[in-house]
Batch of 3 targets.
Target 1
Amino acid sequence: MDLKEFIQMQYMKPDEIIKLQEKRLRKIIRFAYDNAKLYHDKLKSVNLKPEDIKKVEDLRKIPFSSKEDIVKDPFGAVGDKKNLYKLHTTSGTSGKGETIVYFTYNDWEHYAIQNARCLNSAGFTKDDIVYNATPYGMFFAGQVLHDGAKVLGAFIIPASTLKTGWAHINNIKNPFFKPTAFVGLPQYLLRWGHTYIAAGGEPSKSTLKKAYVLGEPVPPTVREKIEQMWGLDCRIGYGLSEIGASAECDEKNGYHWCEDEVIVEVIDPKTGEPVEEDEKGELVYTTLTKTGTLAIRYKSGDESAILGRDCPCGRTHAKLRLIETRLDDLMKVKGTLVSPYTIEHAMFAHDIKGFLCVIDKEKDSDVIRIYVKAKESNTLQNQLISEIKTTASFSPTFIKFIKDLPQIGRKGKRVVDLRKESPLNKLVYEFEDSVSK
Amino acid sequence: MDLKEFIQMQYMKPDEIIKLQEKRLRKIIRFAYDNAKLYHDKLKSVNLKPEDIKKVEDLRKIPFSSKEDIVKDPFGAVGDKKNLYKLHTTSGTSGKGETIVYFTYNDWEHYAIQNARCLNSAGFTKDDIVYNATPYGMFFAGQVLHDGAKVLGAFIIPASTLKTGWAHINNIKNPFFKPTAFVGLPQYLLRWGHTYIAAGGEPSKSTLKKAYVLGEPVPPTVREKIEQMWGLDCRIGYGLSEIGASAECDEKNGYHWCEDEVIVEVIDPKTGEPVEEDEKGELVYTTLTKTGTLAIRYKSGDESAILGRDCPCGRTHAKLRLIETRLDDLMKVKGTLVSPYTIEHAMFAHDIKGFLCVIDKEKDSDVIRIYVKAKESNTLQNQLISEIKTTASFSPTFIKFIKDLPQIGRKGKRVVDLRKESPLNKLVYEFEDSVSK
């Protein structure tokens, strides 16, 4: 496994990329048809034979697949059942249940290389000391980034999750650790930074110089806060356990997808028809090298656009616009569709340490209660209300300044819609009870 | 890396093993002297040159090293500083502070193979579905067993730590998981078993058929409970991040140490002199293949004995008597030295679901308060008192039957000595307060 060769592939000429994709596509469709019940049945249902799929465009003949298909029968999406190495699961918080993703040894090697390419794209080198704060275990991110950093040749501190933010801050300050590069959720850096500053620390003087953040959409205001607070260069990554990963390059305006590994389509989620380049739609993936859990025309629920193959960094693999919205997360509030991303962007444009926005229904009307971790201030309150009105088109029912915020779920949701049932709602009820006392 | 070859080495003739050890010993002592400050200084302090160490017996000329040395200067024990891959830490609960252990890529490969040999010795095969409940992250066990199972060719469910025992029970029951082999702390299986049975479940009907447990000494009564409860074959393992790992074979009466990787000596901890074969003493290790953090005559604090190279399983690598005592854990209670192991063995000989034994001082006298998770019963109370008296030579101040026990520390201590300061004591105080209310 030579990382250099794989990195070089990101600079292939576009027609070479397409040629390679089509070669792999023909092979994988044949393989899927012969081995994976889910895709065999999908092709059969529209009377397709593997040999009908020759070009990237031919993919459109195949019906979509989705998380629901895999939740129903995880093994139905698996091709090579004999060489499986392990499984990972996604959290079932979207309400659709847990997705089980199976990996062969070969799949995992591809994932590790993909992540090494991502880290390389994000500016990490073999000389970095990588502080990996993504969770190791059932969720794939910790291990896949660990193995990616290993392929890159970097030194790794496998922090994973720890009991408190202070345990992490102490690790970052540890004179025997001296991490130069962070990997994990963006909000970890935000939260630890505030905690550290409150205790008189100066995160900007830490040894960290780079961050590769992922796991949730990152509004520009959040990126700016992190960069300023820690004095580092923050790149955004994006990955799905079912599909793979992609990362920003120096340009910081989109992820370079590994086109030799995955074909990405962008469709209108209502009609299922492809949209134009640069136009937003739902991302649909077809994996080309995996033989464990396969994804053929797999609807991701993520909204983005393809930005073309012209990047000043020299990479020719198509860039995806940074993810702002997971379609599942869109909420209708007072008649308008909003995404948590928009609300977060508006809130973090101001000097706040965190917030929780609760959408609820009272007497058949939508109400929006916002709790803000910041010093109480009328000016700030007015700024926040006006900003939310402008960017998210609704007025909050109230804004309350508070000292501490609860952590809602592993990723720490900041916008919670109580109108939808979720096991996480209980935490919000308890928090609101405690605040109103 | 051919696992078969490494497994075959465990069947070498004893004189071949010693020849190999001495060849590696000469090389590693030279390497340590030239590259690792700690060991250079130790040899210098007694005017030793690397060429003075030719035979295993020559090791005795070298002063001991210990955890304290590495805590003081973690980098001083590192040889190859250029090819480091990662670090792991041990918990600092012994009061001596956190040990940082550095690994090169090559070190880790050796560790993975060592663990594959351990799993093989414990009866695991490539056909197993391994449920790995050891924590991944800063602590090395999760990752090292994961990579060991990978080398073995098994399928892995990387469970790591989860929020609740039920999350694990549900994984074990998950019809898409079907684990056949468990790896983790023995008390996990005990605890989950009781929880599952209390809810009407039958752990003995689970798909688990094997367990490889480690992380704490395992009294025979605990092993029996686990085997009976889950209907499986339970093997005990033993490992130190600084040194490596070893496991029981079919004989279930000692760990086969990887003698090609590590030389083990057994010494009288008071005099530092070697003891006879079969005689108990402190284990002292010298690693032969690691080039990251080296261990040269490293005092482990673990008490055991070497049982010779004659094992019906055919392996010729010396067997170590199962660890019963960490010398650090020995406590003087009412004038008698006891180990937590002895207390656990006595308690679990009875029908209890768990216990917490608290050693404390009141008015200059030792007191022993025991909280037992079991149905209140005078008969059981008398049995437990008599058993403790016989095996641990003291009488508990009281035994109280309770419904729920607190988890004390990551490994869940069952014997806590409040006379020694520890951050874990707070949990015990809180628990005892809540019980006395």
Target 2
Amino acid sequence: MPTQEQMKSALQAYVDGFNSGDPAAVTALFADDAVVVDPVGNPPMEGRAAIDEFYGNAVAAGAKLSLDAPIRGSHGDRAAMAFSVNMPGMRIRVIDVMTFNDDGKIVRMEAHWGLDDIEQ
Amino acid sequence: MPTQEQMKSALQAYVDGFNSGDPAAVTALFADDAVVVDPVGNPPMEGRAAIDEFYGNAVAAGAKLSLDAPIRGSHGDRAAMAFSVNMPGMRIRVIDVMTFNDDGKIVRMEAHWGLDDIEQ
């Protein structure tokens, strides 16, 4: 299991990758067979190709992330963060929960946000 | 499935129940067969008796909760919140994710916090 520090560093790198416009820095954090559920309640995206496409589009759209509070760890293989996705004319309030494998890669990402969490 | 508004109201009631020292107001939000994982990585607590004991002790210990950011919903049956647990001489930074049943009761609570998220 990765350390708390490793997991929190990965979540910070996820934020930084968006903010430097570098989708490869974001997708490199994921295992090849990872599952991304964004938002929770929609069908999951599975595997390298789907993840590369999803984050490529999100970063290209100009989404910038700002943490609303310090990143949290756990007593296990998960870390979580509350942040805002800032795009021109729109802000989405999100809580992501990430699960890691023993190699320190993200194997599951679940993003919690609803239509009521969008400010325009 | 409960509405976003119903789920967010339940999470606010959870915070308010702690802050008014009323454990019954907190435990009434849960289904009888709910599962509480606090923190993630420790064994789950299952069912009414375990949940009543857990929250009875937490409220009796004087834990007060303060939201760090607005409560998030989802596109499904989950809502999440980033908050701090404030006790005399200690603060724990937590992200809770709650899953609801069709009756609007919490069936699963997962609390994300690690030893590094405790400030003394």
Target 3
Amino acid sequence: MLRFAAVLLEIWLLPLPAMAARYPSYGTLQTTKSDGVLNVVINNTYSTINLFDMHVQSDLANLIETLQANDTDVRVVVFSKSVLPLYDTGFPDMLFPVALLWNITQLPQATIAVVEGRTRGIGNEFLMSCDMRFASTSPLRGAMYLSRLIGRGLTFEYVLSSADVDARTAARVGWVNAAFDTSRELHQYVQALAARIALFPAAGIVATKTGINAVTRPSRDVLVQDAQNVIAALVPTPPVQDAFKRFLQVTRNQSIGPMELNYGAEVRRLFN
Amino acid sequence: MLRFAAVLLEIWLLPLPAMAARYPSYGTLQTTKSDGVLNVVINNTYSTINLFDMHVQSDLANLIETLQANDTDVRVVVFSKSVLPLYDTGFPDMLFPVALLWNITQLPQATIAVVEGRTRGIGNEFLMSCDMRFASTSPLRGAMYLSRLIGRGLTFEYVLSSADVDARTAARVGWVNAAFDTSRELHQYVQALAARIALFPAAGIVATKTGINAVTRPSRDVLVQDAQNVIAALVPTPPVQDAFKRFLQVTRNQSIGPMELNYGAEVRRLFN
Amino acid sequence: MLRFAAVLLEIWLLPLPAMAARYPSYGTLQTTKSDGVLNVVINNTYSTINLFDMHVQSDLANLIETLQANDTDVRVVVFSKSVLPLYDTGFPDMLFPVALLWNITQLPQATIAVVEGRTRGIGNEFLMSCDMRFASTSPLRGAMYLSRLIGRGLTFEYVLSSADVDARTAARVGWVNAAFDTSRELHQYVQALAARIALFPAAGIVATKTGINAVTRPSRDVLVQDAQNVIAALVPTPPVQDAFKRFLQVTRNQSIGPMELNYGAEVRRLFN
């Protein structure tokens, strides 16, 4: 069992150069492909805290375009990363990430997010846009799309209080599919699941996703209107701009520090 | 910890007269305000069982109008009560409570319901209309809006069987956010949560609520049509009118007694 | 307690001939009626594995037509069966089962499914169409309607991996209302629940179901379009037809064997 896991992790961490032609290692994405499963490690070398910023988002948009036109060769995509924190406050187009996340839900492949480390804001919305989520010991902080998974009551509590939620609690309430004590167990479970799903024909995966999306996904119009009404209307306002400025000061331009490592407790420093 | 809780409870129970100008103690609502949090104790002196009747609903409608026009001074509202039982069978306008509950979901403030004691019928719909719910040892009995929180299957079971559900079970299935063993722990948790949420700017709370409502709340049309199709069509029918009459007899006009204290077990007395 | 359960089971298993005039024992359905509760045992004598095939579906359609025109005499319907496995691959009209399942959600009676044994594919969709579900030790395999009960994340995991899920896990995530260790406890709980619901007037049951359906059920159009877009578009394709052919070979025309008893593990034999 342990040996098997070790082999899996090794495969996991080694990009296969032969595949680079079709699924290249972008600046921020390292890809490896094997038996219908594409593993994508998000590693933002432009940021000390692996920010889900315009570099990651642009690279993801390119990858998704390739996957969307996929010839059924890849049937499962596993996204992983050590940390995926806050939204890049300097991103120019508010609707770009909304379109990106919608396009992820439209992929013909099954998508799995592996969470190891802090995942907040747009980083968490990215998790929500994947079909499934698995975590080891990670603090998660929700944003609006969370409500599709855990319901109104808990979403209001977690988002309004801007609390960091541990992976075990997240699994109990349905935020992630399951939580694991160790990184090894996490990757072993996810790789076995991905291999299992990849057994099935691509057409079956597409049909299943279409059916589940038809019942559980808000319409694209709702999401775009939501982004326009809420985010676009909120972000330019003085209190939010003030909080952003203070945030950049306190975090020394989004680098490692108390605010990044313990956002839940430190956030009050932004408002007094 | 215990000392802190004791102080909290003291604050909790004392209305601040200085605030009466803007948030008056209505006949059935006692209000206290502190650091962006408005605590509202529902205490219906017209009823021996704290009925959620026309007095409470009218006072709430006035309070909500004030809150709706709020100048961002109040950012969190905590509603509490010892018991909040059945619907007032004599209420003249079926659509008034529907509009009232909808308006609560529209408030710019975060709303938290604290449940201590029996909560049933329209009393439970009021809980559902708040953003979050926390309970200590309380029997709850569901009504239709419950399905938004706990799903079709359990809602059918609880509502069709008219069962009293304990707070611990309610927390496990998502009916309330969390259940606590003691009143002290309950209030301590809620006051800390309210204080945390009140840290954030009012605009952020509004935007978060707008976003979550967009995805999780049925449209106003669905709710109004539902009330017209179901409640308004049902209430005037002979079997419901007969059950109401028998209910008033058995409860001695909705006073304390076996039916009120143990509705789940006693309800069969209405039908044979 | 045990004696009471024994009596219940006895009633359960004996069809009452006197009732046959209105609720006949169809070829595949054995019915017994008592105090407003109709018990329906699905026993497909045309199939060695109790297939949810055209015989069962036709008999159910007839029963549902009778129940739909019910004179309020029957207020609760309990469906049970030992096993209810895969979809009949030879069924001529893809939209017939969609209409059948929709009509079950429209019944004026409360409907309860009792699960004992393997329940997969259309058999699970039948479970989903009932108001409530209770299980003892049974492997369940989900299909698309599952998402209404357990959310996007877990539905994707279970359906895409085509995994058999045990009843205990199913209860934890909301797939079934509750799981029981023994058949006796299961039937005892369900019969007590059915008797409790049958206490209430038929008009109240109808109104409750209408209200919950209004909020939690996808529209008929969504379901029909879903069936047309997904199932009707998928089933005639070569990979699905190939998988069906292989499935019939491997299962020796859907009879008892390793594939039937352990579908989750054996399914890979269909694809390599």
